[in-house]
Design a protein that fits this description.
136 residues, alpha/beta, Nucleotidyltransferase, domain 5, five-stranded mixed β-sheet, membrane, Tol-Pal system protein TolR
């Protein structure tokens, strides 16, 4: 006979092949890893002044410089001082001259320090219209 009758008790085991599902999961995992955008933080908390509705969304492809209330300049969690700005951001601006520079100034930081950071960013090659001071 070609078929089975209802009375036959076979020892056939049923297997579910999970390899296509695992392949699909790995493809999705690789896609999400490759398409993820990482935002680089400055590494210190800056108490920025509040200007209400004038705050804009942070561009993920930008250079972030922080000025603390002690007038220390940070980039990537590292204290670089005003003299270290050119050395840190000039190579980044050489790769992408249109990259914006965002200065996060603490509201208790002196205006002169924030302006010196602005001037050093311009000397490093940042375009004047691409430098901004971040607030809340």
């Amino acid at each position: 006979m070609f078929g089975k009758s209802l009375g036959d008790e076979g020892d056939d085991e049923v297997h579910i092949d999970l390899s296509p599902m695992i392949d699909c999961i790995f493809i999705l995992l690789i896609f999400f890893i490759v398409s993820t955008v990482f935002v680089e933080e400055t590494g210190v908390k800056v108490n920025k002044p509040d200007v209400g509705a004038a705050a804009s969304a942070l561009d993920s492809n930008s250079i972030l410089l922080a000025v603390t209330k002690d007038d220390k300049v940070f980039y990537g969690g590292e204290s670089i001082g005003i003299q270290g700005i050119i050395g840190k951001i000039k190579p980044l601006l050489a790769e992408n001259p249109d990259m914006p520079v965002i200065i996060q100034g603490d509201k208790e930081a002196t205006h002169g320090t924030v302006q010196r950071v602005h001037g050093q960013a311009m000397l490093a090659g940042a375009q004047k219209d691409k430098i901004s001071v971040s607030t809340k």
